Amino acid sequence: MAAIDVALREIAEALGGELIGDGSQRIRRIGPLEDATADSIAFLANPRYRSQLATSIAACVIVAPALRDEAVARGAAIVTPDPYLYFARLSQWWAPRARCAPAAGVHASAVVDPSADVAATASIGALAVIEAGATIGDGAVIGAHCTVGAEAQVGANTRLAAHVTLGFGCVIGERCIVHSGVVIGADGFGFAPTEGRWEKIEQLGAVRIANDVEIGANTCIDRGALGDTVIEDGVKLDNLIQIAHNVHVGAHTVMAAFVGVAGSAHIGRHCLIGGAARIAGHITLADHVQISTCSLVTHSIAKAGHYSGAFPIDDNASWQKNAATLRNLHALRERVRTLEKTSSERRDSASITPAPSATDSKAV
Amino acid sequence: MAAIDVALREIAEALGGELIGDGSQRIRRIGPLEDATADSIAFLANPRYRSQLATSIAACVIVAPALRDEAVARGAAIVTPDPYLYFARLSQWWAPRARCAPAAGVHASAVVDPSADVAATASIGALAVIEAGATIGDGAVIGAHCTVGAEAQVGANTRLAAHVTLGFGCVIGERCIVHSGVVIGADGFGFAPTEGRWEKIEQLGAVRIANDVEIGANTCIDRGALGDTVIEDGVKLDNLIQIAHNVHVGAHTVMAAFVGVAGSAHIGRHCLIGGAARIAGHITLADHVQISTCSLVTHSIAKAGHYSGAFPIDDNASWQKNAATLRNLHALRERVRTLEKTSSERRDSASITPAPSATDSKAV
Amino acid sequence: MAAIDVALREIAEALGGELIGDGSQRIRRIGPLEDATADSIAFLANPRYRSQLATSIAACVIVAPALRDEAVARGAAIVTPDPYLYFARLSQWWAPRARCAPAAGVHASAVVDPSADVAATASIGALAVIEAGATIGDGAVIGAHCTVGAEAQVGANTRLAAHVTLGFGCVIGERCIVHSGVVIGADGFGFAPTEGRWEKIEQLGAVRIANDVEIGANTCIDRGALGDTVIEDGVKLDNLIQIAHNVHVGAHTVMAAFVGVAGSAHIGRHCLIGGAARIAGHITLADHVQISTCSLVTHSIAKAGHYSGAFPIDDNASWQKNAATLRNLHALRERVRTLEKTSSERRDSASITPAPSATDSKAV
User: Which residues of A touch B107 (CB under 8 A)?
Assistant: First the structure.
């Protein structure tokens, strides 16, 4: 990793925003506001942390217009409508300067089939395997120990980290990032039962991944049984996710770690799926559906919105009592019903009997 | 992937069933009924989709005897008692015709210890590592980047996809399929506590996998602590499953993605374990037990049957209210008890007091 | 694996404890008490299995002082205050004798950058890749197919099994064990939303792992966004765990398989996190917190103790009824409230009205 030492002015020139203060100030780090150093650029995206502004010694703070005066009172600032987005773009400007770029060309130790089509500007890492008929696009980076299967396609400027498996015939678009341990194109899980055994259904489809998709470490995306498994543009998948065969994930949907999507589920666009949530097979989620972490989605959701289902945590003793009661919850409801019935009968009788009784008394 | 172009007759001759219609019809795809093309063979396994029969333009439809007339009315058909099973076998007939078979022999880039015993008909992929004393059976396929540890054994016709790790001394039988990223024979998770630290218990057992087992991508099967971890014949494991040390999985049991089985659990034969279900350590599940997705099995189950335990999903606002109430469920039960007691006392008093009172009144 | 054949005396001399009986007895196995062979050494750690003592034919049993007489009555014994810890140490003494040690030096097929600093006593396995500027300490073992990224550091006597990915700039201390498929230093999952898309936040931090840490197969530890992700001394992580960016895991904490820790969570020391538990982002767990399996921790826990939250399993029919009721739990509570109110009003009216009424009656 190379050390970075730039003038503040260079950042503002590259990324925009209104720079207030000394543009010649040297910047050597991006830091969180709270423990920034005097050569750091920091950002304030969440007004909750506003109090850190006064005490931070950061060389420059990226802030929204509303905080301009406060920021300027303490030193240099870059004013921009969306400081978090500005930070994202700053990180993208920063990373290639801090890291060694992989060299274009095929590493001497890689095993590339002569029939593979590897762009001259692509980088094929040490001990990578590129099988027959595979295509590697312009500027693509194939990390060390990757396997790109026969007739698979990697789009331009897509990066595969070390140890990625891209199965035969699978396609990944442009500007994607695939992290280590990802397996794209393993067989979907399909069997026909017969006489107490399971007969394999060969998975004859593939996986098609569009552009600008990011896939986290050790995530699995299975190939389709007949048609393909499809991931649309801009989808972001965290680590250790399971996408089963013939699933369709709509554009710009985000899933956190350990999400499992069962076969042939159809997830809409712009969905947010929390960690360890499970989506049952053959169901459909509308666009803009948000699922909370650990929730099990057992039926289609036709309406955008936020859905949840997870057991609340408690101290173990309380949980034990509540869980034991939960196992008899239906019976408890029946008891409440009985009480309601009794109460209602009593109320009925109360509204009839006592009155005459009182009357009787008085009548006596 | 090779293009397939066969006469319908060839399929029926290979797989049986009663062929009705033009056997010379060319078949180039296996398709779902609903979007089949005119050169597709499709199947109808679920009567629910019966309405698709009339409108499908598939060249041939595989149907059960009950749908013979309906199928024949629209074109060629193969009539067979179990269309889904027929489809499975068709997929198996199809796949090797559509794909390049790996060549027998050891790829020049593979690293094979001279003491390893590799069958002449086995295929060892690019950059695979076969360590000392390992055995690779007839017709076995070891994918690119696989590691087969010292003295490990791979049975005849078993296929390891790319990037499989088979640990030293571990054994896998015949006709198994192991997908990419699988780790067989990592250490089980065992430690003895001492003075606030954890002392490692070396895992001295191995993993023994029988015949016809399939193991999904990135699944882990740990070696035993003293004895072995055992997977019996015909077990099918989906992706991202965790089988801990000394677990025993009975024949023909199926587990969906993310299932976790803790140490020394003993799972019966013909069980169905839903995705993300957890089986606690040191417990036993009888044969033919079905566990629903996301359920946590904390105690042995002695009786075949279907067991479940997962929080139902709801819109987030409803969930919040219900979850908050759940945290006080035990208290709610106590309140119901109190009401029942009060109601019962009142009933008792109601059956005694009013009568005398009325009598009193009347007596007055 | 080499066969082991030692005199019982050798074990006691190496590991201590009071040896009672024939020290020349040959020991060839470590076995569980119940199915030990006549050349086995077994241990009895849990008094629950005490009854197995009399019937075991093990050559020697490791027992606590309280069971000395019982053990000696049946044959040789080693008496030690903590038999389980003794067993752990015995397994550590045993393992290197039973297994081939990897040879020091760099395998001819490995790809080691000339600028990497590899200790002469380290072992670099077949087809491993060591990138520019990486450091491999004394006695460290890098397994086959490992990737050690640029400027990454592996401490002395740390072992990476086959297929480990250690990302650029990441650091792992001494005496650690990292199992196959582990990915250390993939990008944390960070994006800024903008106009319906997600803008990547480059992850500029790294991962720092201290000493004596063990990491199970296919576990992922992401690099930090700005600062580092930190794993302190003696932490033990099981398989398939997800540690997100900027998480901090305190010393000697243990996590079982499938635990997910979201970004910037801070886990205390000596915590026990059960399998598939989830820790939300940006929260803090105190030292000595125990979380039950499958529990979702949504808020900070300031106090040591045991916390749980998981739906209890039941037969499917019962679960369905209880789960359906659960979806209306809040309404049920309201119904109980109504009943309580009614009951209370009745009691109030009962304590006021009837009395005068009776008085009235009597007054009449």
Answer: 111
